[in-house]
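Attaching the record inline, Q. Sequence:
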Amino acid sequence: MGRRKSTAASLTGTPERAYPSRMIKNAQGNDFAWFGPREAAGVLLICAYAGLAVALGSAGCTGVKAAAPQGPEAFQGVVEHEDRSVGFEVGGRILSVGVERGERVKAGQVIAKLDDSLELPLRDMRVADLHTAEAQLALLKAGTRVEDIRSAEAQIASVQAQEGIERKNLERTETLYGRGSISLSEVDQLRATVDTTLERKRSLEEQLKGLKRGPRGEEISAALARVEAATAAVAAQEARLSRFTLSALLDGDIVDVHVKPGEMVAPNALALTVADLEHPYVDVFVPQSRGAEVRVGMSASVRVDSMPKPLPGKVEHVFPKTEFTPRYLFSEGERENLVLRARIRIDDPKHTLHAGLPAFVTLNGASR
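Structure, as predicted:
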């Protein structure tokens, strides 16, 4: 086997030659090695490489600018949307669905309907009852017609004439009875006839007084109560019919449709989901030590990994209670677990944010 080359020989590429070396002591008594010329050259070359590396490292370090100080600390959260899950308050068959997933809707816009063909006749019947009650009330308030009063007066005059005739007949009958020409029973019969006619006249006279006075207050009150009851019945039926039409509660986008025309749905069953995609929000958790820095109305910048530029936002609400709070605060270390939840409302007119995305919120004006 050949001799292994020394490090100096391998670095210089020259054949290895043996040079004597010995240990000597300096004046302080420390040992150091003395090398021959070849080994000294190798050692010097190693030192040169090391010096070059140090020089390059120093040049690289001095050539890079110092990193700029970081801005305010970003709080982490998740993008969410305000959504509403809407459904029918009554059960029935889906007649139509007027929107599709992804469609923009306005508050109050009709988005679905139930079949109300069985409810409309009931509404019409309630309306007819209301009209009848209103007509009766109007008749009472109008009072007695002049024709009715004249008719009653004519009846009274007729009875008075009949009474006069009957009284004359009674007088003749009593004269004949005094002469013994007729029996007492005939006289009593005529007297009963006169009394009957007299009572009839009195009845007609009282009726005439009632016609002239008009309806009593109690009668008008009863008629008015019937009108109010009929009106309430119509309103109740109209309110029930309105439940057969589903409208959007707010401006937003249809994010999901859960029903199809022809399907049967139960009361309060979920039908559609509407979300406000233009104003998402992020809930961030601020350490309690920095709670005083967060104020409602502060501007904020919201950044997500998929967007090159942040979106503007604003602190909409700071929740009044801290979260993750221990039952008892024993030490300052446990107090660090206290955080305040703050809701950041984001302006996203182009609908670029999606629910569930991690977001990083920087509060403008907050310290590091």
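The first helix runs from residue 7 to 12. Confidence is low (pLDDT under 50) at residues 1-69, 325-331.

More tomorrow.
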